[in-house]
Amino acid sequence: MNLGGRAYLMEPMYIRKVFLSSMVGLLVLISMPVSSETITLLPHRAVYEMTLESGGDAIGLVSVHGGLVIEVEDRCDTWSVRQRVLMQILREDGGLVTTSIYDSFEAKDGTWYRFEDETINDPGPTEKSSGEAVAATDLNSGSITIEEPEVSRHDMPQEAIFPMEHMSDLLVRALAGERFMSHVIFDGTDGATVNDVTTIVGKAETIDGQTAWPMRLAFFDHGSGEELPNVEINALLRDDGVALELAFDYGDFIIRSDLRELETLAEGGC
């Protein structure tokens, strides 16, 4: 995807798709399987309010309002994460209301991943996508199988990992003092697309007695060689995995998500 010419941003559905994709890449910062010796995670349900922070004039975008709910569950050998997004997008030539439910399941050992997405657009059609992927091993190459909207099979890069493993590695290395990292990730939010993600970690802060890190993540299509990313995320992340602030920078506009509610969920009992 070439951000040099951003004509595709005129399509309202692009806003939802890239928001969901970047959110999947980030949400696992709220649910990563990091050692309890370094991080105590908070199983939870988080509610965020979404607004248009800045920009949009160049593409006729007037406003964005909505909500994001993330529910993270520990199912012993598997992480289960549900995202629900409601977005009201208003442009100069009309509006769109879109509702998405995105479920992902990932083996804690990083060997497999499954996703299911249903999006209802008003006006517009209902969209469904689903599929699964298997990580590469020393003996077998990685693979991606798309089930909906059309069946297809694809090779997955040898170095590609899934979102939970990605963010687990990211946070552990940040705790060790690393400030720049790069990964190859598959999350299923755009078919068989694989992302190159670079992350810059800022200086840790103390907020209400807990450590938080400002981070900036940039998402590129894998191997595209593009200079500008599809989206960049600015996040302020607490040491228990709760995102205190989120800003999604699409180049021509920025969508902000502010934490409004936080509910602790029961442990998995494994």
- Share of β-strand residues: over 45%
Number of E strands: 15
Return Rg in Å. Answer: 18 Å
Number of spatially distinct domains: 1
Main sheet record: 15 strands, antiparallel
Number of helices: 2
Described by the principal axes of the CA atoms, the overall outline is globular
**Helices and strands, in N-to-C order?**
HEEEEEEEEHEEEEEEE
> Ends: how far apart?
42 Å
Structural class: mainly beta
Poorly predicted ranges: 1-18, 28-37
Helical coverage, percent range = 10-25%
Descriptive terms for the model:
270 residues, mainly beta, 15-stranded antiparallel beta sheet, 11% helix, 53% strand
What does it look like?
The protein is mostly beta strands. It has helices spanning 12-27, 163-175; strands at 44-55, 61-75, 78-91, 94-107, 112-122, 126-134, 142-148, 152-156, 180-186, 194-201, 205-207, 210-221, 231-238, 243-249, 253-264. The protein has a 15-stranded antiparallel sheet that branches. The protein is globular.
Write the layout of secondary structure elements.
Blueprint: H1 12-27, E1 44-55, E2 61-75, E3 78-91, E4 94-107, E5 112-122, E6 126-134, E7 142-148, E8 152-156, H2 163-175, E9 180-186, E10 194-201, E11 205-207, E12 210-221, E13 231-238, E14 243-249, E15 253-264
Antiparallel strand pairs: 1-2, 1-15, 2-3, 3-4, 4-5, 5-6, 6-7, 7-8, 9-10, 10-12, 11-12, 12-13, 13-14, 14-15
